[in-house]
Write a structure and sequence with these properties.
This protein is mostly helical. The chain has one domain: 434 Repressor (Amino-terminal Domain) (Orthogonal Bundle). It contains 6 helices and no strands. Helix 3 packs across helix 4 and helix 3 packs across helix 5. The longest helix has 15 residues. The chain is globular and about 35 Å long.
Amino acid sequence: MYICAKISYDCLKRCQSMIMNSVKKLREERLMSKAELARLAGVSPITIDRIERGEECRMETKRKILLALGFSLSDKNKVFQD
């Protein structure tokens, strides 16, 4: 019982720390690969993968991704809902 409660709590904490975003959906709508988005944004494909999984990233990285997807900085909430 203790292990299940611990696992559930850890999972909940991890999910709460994740950032909701639409990067994957928008990238796929544009028929872009992770590598292509990474190249256009000037970040690594691993960074794109992490962001699509909801892990945190720096504001500068968000800015680069917004611009690479063709959004303006004022459209931030259309991509990142944090």
